[in-house]
Amino acid sequence: MQNIEIKNLIVNFDILNSENNVVSKKRAIDGVNLSINEGEFVCILGRNGSGKSTLAKCLNALVLPSEGDVIINGMNTKDETKTLDIRKNIGMAFQNPDNQIVASIVEEDIAFGMENLCIDSETMDKRIDEALDSLGIKELRFSVTSKLSGGQKQKVSIAGILAMKSKIIVLDEPTSMIDKNGRKDLLDRVKKLNKEDNITIILISHYIDEISYADRVVVLDKGKIVMDNTPREIVLHKSELENAGITLPYIPNLATRLKEHGKNLKGNEFTVGELCQFLK
Ligand SMILES: Nc1ncnc2c1ncn2[C@@H]1O[C@H](COP(=O)(O)OP(=O)(O)OP(=O)(O)O)[C@@H](O)[C@H]1O
Ligand SMILES: [Mg+2]
To answer: What domains appear along the chain, each with residue ranges and CATH number?
Structure first.
């Protein structure tokens, strides 16, 4: 049973001046408690600077707690002897793919993560093929990474994680450089992995419409969890969302407005199809 346990987590960053002296502290995470079970698809939402990336980096020990604990499958991120094991368990795609691509050719880049896991070359070859195929970018296998677009780089870095077969995947704004159709396609593929292979997905997003892919939505504001509920419940709390700097997705917003005008809707409909039900 894979799971994530975050207990009373506080992260303070040192703010340095030009002489590298600590002039103040910035609290990026302020008392977070969160458990995530195997196979859950969790979307983390929050405005810029709310602590989303910091929280993600705490999961694979890139950032260590100032206070509290982060425990991944029973392993505490503070225990340095477990760092490698933790990173085998959690695959992470960073916000900026340029920080993640290490090799000059796509297939070498995807192989890089697997090399650290001592996987034989035949298996590697097969997994590279599968990972590229599952993201619909098979034709990029021999491409030069520096010539890829931002969106292609994001997909290649996700393919690298898929090839490692991590049971937990953290995607930090994975679609920021991908167009609308590409975003839907990528997230459909991620959802398929989640459902078919029971892979735990933590999706950090700016696009509130992406919450419809998740089983659960966690909203961060100023380093604190301010909401933690299902997507359908979350969208019923328009003013709480707005206080956290988030506006309702288009269709739930329309549904809410129609409901306010006396229409017989729940106000948490997500699709045009659901809206049409009440028009019948
Ligand atoms: N290494 C660091 N040193 C100092 N402050 C930092 C550091 N990393 C993050 N912060 C600060 O911590 C806060 C949370 O940052 P974080 O990157 O986690 O936010 P975020 O929710 O991912 O934002 P965005 O939506 O812009 O990606 C911000 O105020 C940020 O400036
Ligand atoms: Mg971020």
So the answer is: 39-66+75-231 (3.40.50.300)
